[in-house]
Amino acid sequence: MTLRVLAAMSGGVDSAVAAARVAEAGHDVTGVHMALSANPRSYRTGARGCCTLEDARDARRAADVIGIPFYVWDLAERFDRDVVADFVSEYAAGRTPNPCLRCNEKIKFAALLDRALALGFDAVCTGHYARWENGVLRRGVDTAKDQSYVLAVCTPEQLAHAIFPLGDTTKAEIRREAERRGLAVADKPDSHDICFIADGDTRAFLAERLGTAPGPIVDETGQVVGEHQGAYAYTIGQRRGLRLGRPAPDGRPRYVLDISPATNTVTVGPREALDVHEIVGERPVWLAPPPAGPHECQVQLRAHGEVYDCTAEADGDRVRIRLHEPARGVARGQAAVLYDGDRVIGSSTIALTSRVPA
């Protein structure tokens, strides 16, 4: 059966090969590049950022080589509202967001998919390293590049219209395939930074939008040990850039343990105080039947982060997760994605953490 497929083409090697594979399979493919910045930079710097004019041109050239129609869709206003503004407000609230999750949830599998379906397309194709098989989201076979974590916020209804052609392939193989296909992006560096902060300076980006708001940095006893210019510039587990005026009594490094926007206070302490044994997640998205009772599974707490054995239980509009071994530096606002082996059970946003074992 021939499908009408809209291929999201970022200008990178992954999305180019994904589009080429779907076209080669005999489907009717149209390429589209999402213009997400109202004032895109002309060129990216190494692997920093994406969505530049250069990326749009690379996507167009790839589409020409593949032999498919190509368009640029302006989604800058939607991206600024749903991703950038959300990013800023989450930091202002003392949480640490993941904009790639929000982009998948609000842009690629909402704004883009909705428009594609309205235009009569059957599916959207992307270059994510993940597998969607018979209604099940699984990790990509390349564990180093697996992106099932950032896709776990999408609903089953959204994923039912998704095609991930790269899930069964390693990144090294994709680059070799791109070269064989004559795609000029075969050796293009991956983007590793937040796409709308091209210089990588998150603190300066937030300061420009939130201004300065001096406040105290305190230790676990409440004693003031330093001052910050904005609590939003810190994240749980941070060690560098604290600029403390007073060393710890034992001389050991101190880490950010908590951020309180209500009092504009940052709390620091020893590394072991970062241990988290229990997590409460909110706004769950289930890709498998939610566990009616305690369920033994695994949880991943950040993109490409460590996986922990846990016991999870659905509790209304929340998920309670008890870690078998403590995790360190768990930040509110990140996603907790539950797995059974390589299968995604569901995701939730980390709202509360506890250092007290069950």
From TrEMBL:
It is an enzyme of class 2 (transferase). InterPro entries: MnmA-like, MnmA-like_C, MnmA-like_central, MnmA-like_central_sf, Rossmann-like_a/b/a_fold. One of its GO terms (molecular function) is tRNA-uridine 2-sulfurtransferase activity. Residues 277-350 form the tRNA-specific 2-thiouridylase MnmA-like C-terminal domain. It comes from the Bacteria. Its EC number is 2.8.1.13. Keywords: ATP-binding, Cytoplasm, Disulfide bond, Nucleotide-binding, RNA-binding, Transferase, tRNA processing, tRNA-binding. The keyword Nucleotide-binding applies. Its main location: cytoplasm. The keyword Transcription regulation does not apply. Pfam families: tRNA_Me_trans, tRNA_Me_trans_C, tRNA_Me_trans_M. It is found in: Cytoplasm. Catalyzes the 2-thiolation of uridine at the wobble position (U34) of tRNA, leading to the formation of s(2)U34. Belongs to the MnmA/TRMU family. NCBIfam families: PRK00143.1, trmU. This is tRNA-specific 2-thiouridylase MnmA. It comes from Thermomonospora curvata (strain ATCC 19995 / DSM 43183 / JCM 3096 / KCTC 9072 / NBRC 15933 / NCIMB 10081 / Henssen B9).
